[in-house]
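Thread: Newbie trying to understand structure tokens

Hi all, I'm a second-year student working on a class project, and my supervisor (Dr. K.) asked me to get a predicted structure for one chain before our next meeting. I've only ever worked with sequences, so writing a 3D structure as a token string is new to me. If someone could post the tokens and maybe explain what I'm looking at, I'd be very grateful. Here's the chain:
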Amino acid sequence: MYINDEYNPTVKINLENGIYTFDAESATGKTRLCKHLKKLKAYGELVDSFTYDDLLRGDTLDKVLRAENKVIMLDRYDLYKSEGHELINRCAEHSIILIDCKSPFLGSPESEDCCITMTENCLEVFL
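---
Reply by user tm_fold:
Sure, no problem. This is what the structure looks like when written as tokens:
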């Protein structure tokens, strides 16, 4: 579980360490969560996120898939879904891995579905 209410919006991730995939529904808050996790990382929190734009800029998944991160989000993963399966599985032992992928995530048989709710002041992720 991860909660950060120090900054707005509050982030509540009611999950244990492991791999979780969001459903394909649009406009639920996934990209907002991704951007907010990047801000939290800049503020010194042990969270991070990665999106297709990062890949286009030349960044690599190994920069965010680190065991010290409590939460790692991979946004728009279907656009680079052949990348990082081994790293994702290794980090899942120590981190909550959130994956936004429109097609099924095939990198691990251990992944579970999760949901997100978004309000003006809170982003919450749960089973």
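A couple of things are worth pointing out once you decode it. The first helix runs from residue 30 to 42. The helical segments are 30-42, 52-56, 85-91. Feel free to ask follow-ups in this thread.
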